[in-house]
Amino acid sequence: MHTPADDPAGTMDDPALERPDERDLDRLAETVERLRREVARVRRAADDRALIELAKGVLVERLRCRPAQAAEQLTLLAAKAGVSQLELAADVVSEIADDRIGEAGRDEPEVAVRLRAAESAALATGDIQSVVHSILEHALTPLGATAVAVWAATPGSSLALAAYAGFGEEEAGRWRHVPPGVITPAGRALTERRLIWHADVGLPAIGRQTAAGGRVTVPITTGGRVLGVLEICWPHALPPRPPRIERQIQALAELCGHTLDSPFAPIVPAVPALSEIVNLADALPDPALVLRAELDVYGDLADFRIQHVNERLRGGDGLLLEAYPLISGGLLLEAYPRAAGGMFARIEQVHATGEPFRTERMPLGLSTTGVANVSATRHGDSVLLVWRDVDADARLAGLLEHAQRLGRIGGFEENAVTGELTWNAQLYSLYGLVPGDQPIPLERLRDHAHPDDAIAIGRFLRTVLHHRRFAATAFRLERPDGVARHMRVVAEPVLGPDGRLMAVRGAYQDISSQHWTEVALSVTRDQLAHTEQQSAERNRLALQLQQAIMPPSHGRMDSLGLRIAVRYRPAQKEHLVGGDWYDAVALPSHQVLLSVGDVAGHGVEAATGMVILRNALRGLATTGAGPAQLMEWLNLVAHHLADRMTATAVCGLYDPPTRVLRWARAGHLPPILLRGADGSELPMVKGPLLGAFTDAQYEEGRLQLQAEDTLLMYTDGLIERRDHNLRHAQDRLLDIAKRSSNTLDHRLDDLLTHCNSDTDDDTCLIGVHLS
């Protein structure tokens, strides 16, 4: 034990001896920092030397010289070019590699040096963690980035943190695994398969507390497969980045991809051998193909090579046997171009992300029936495509079950993909046909029904085929043997995964026994839905009103060489009785007057105005005046003699000997001319609304018609919609009108069924066909 006597100088009480001098701590910190810089300098120097040695190796191979001569040549070339050996080495490697790194640094030597140095360090280690540190140090720090993470894509669209730099251990530990369904910046790049700049990260993300600035995420892709995501973080918000920066980032992602795709990578699962996938395909009971990506010269996916077809296909099932030589070892799009319609994109998505794809009743060009249940899964770098045809037996079983669920007999199915019609035996019996007769398509139902039921059938067909909703209606079936049956038909559309109409299923119910007596009829009405009863009563009222004030169809004018068909569809709501009219009459001058018009408004006043204008036009036409003059006179009638009503109209005078049509319009939509497979609207001649101006002037158009031409005139109730502009509706009408049709009546029926209108206004439609 020391005593004060042992310390005569009193040094035991000196505070300077109790703690280290602060200057010593500063010296220690400076030494540590100097050593850190020295280690970094030595590591960079080693990376630079590795790049120079790589360039020397290239020169040895290209010049067929010794290493010493290659070193001398590199020094000589650098001196002549006025650049450092490091910059020249980067140029030499880029020239021979012809890769994304070379493209990114083509016009910027310092960028090429940084990227090649990072690549040299990566090649020296082969470890993804070392690669990430090298990328951050050599390539990203000069760009202002402070942190980087590499995510590996794992099954089920989840992410695993494969490597990181610039983040703390604790932060990285919380982000080892990102399960499926969690939306992160890296997850977006994986799903959307594109480079994304995130200006303000509002999503959960690694390092959000310490690197809350901007960040970029880019998929790591090799051979069309997305192996993972490269995520780079900045401590500040990012301005718009030029394309040259994006090229550098893409090159760095490619560098990470080479390491992730290594068989020694710990995150990526082992790739199954092709023989394993082949054995799996041959063990399946359904047709199957093994596909492998076919890359273009840039390393991007161009097509899929068919590596193997299973025993089911080689046995002739699923595909025609003679088609097998075309697909074995061939390209998918060359063997089956129809795959480009949507199936190819599904396979590409499976190959890129590894997420399986399965769906039912998909149009498939590989299938014998055209429709199949499809499955696609990735196994390593191969895709296994399996399908099962929706065969006739399955469809018939489904029809039987469907008809039983609806309650009665007479089931049917119409395949919208192949056009095939399937009836069961009972439905043939209902129609008075025998199995083997040609089934009757749903769209031709009017041809076999009582004429008074045409409107109800038209609305039923429109609901099912156009609006694609379940519908039902009652009608009277007129059979070929002269027997009339009261029927009820129910139908519903079957839609594919993309919303496309695949088929229509339904059943016919014979309700004749309920109509033999008045008592049975009243019982049947009680059983029908209240809305159906109201609809039927309104339809009959509208039909009676139409027959009272509208002219009937004129049929054929044989002496004039014309076939004329007309349709009138009243408004669905009885209080919306409108002022639409049509007329077709032979005049004393041997010309034919064709007219269509629409009085503004609804109700009794509109109907009265319609009668006034239609009859006035008939009387005025007997004077022999032209269409423009008739429109001027009719405008005076609307303005002065009909309580200032307003209306639209189109009027035509057809001369049979010359086949010349003269026409004029008053604010009305122009007629449509169908000639062969083409169709177009007539030129829009000038003419204001009837009743709008006292001294309105009208322009006259002239058209030379030909044999087999068809002229269509209509009111806007056929096409108008509240949610679309009129031009869009006119284009839709023109497309429908150009479809082929057996008869003029069928063409008009198809227009009423498929035109995209709201059907809350009455509609007039007239068709004229020249023989």
Automatic annotation (TrEMBL):
GO terms for molecular function: phosphatase activity; RNA binding. It comes from Nonomuraea solani. It comes from the Bacteria. Residues 32-93 form the ANTAR domain. SUPFAM superfamilies: GAF domain-like, PP2C-like, PYP-like sensor domain (PAS domain). The keyword Iron does not apply. Gene3D superfamilies: 3.30.450.40, PAS domain, PPM-type phosphatase domain, Winged helix-like DNA-binding domain superfamily/Winged helix DNA-binding domain. This is Serine phosphatase RsbU, regulator of sigma subunit. Residues 471-523 form the PAC domain.
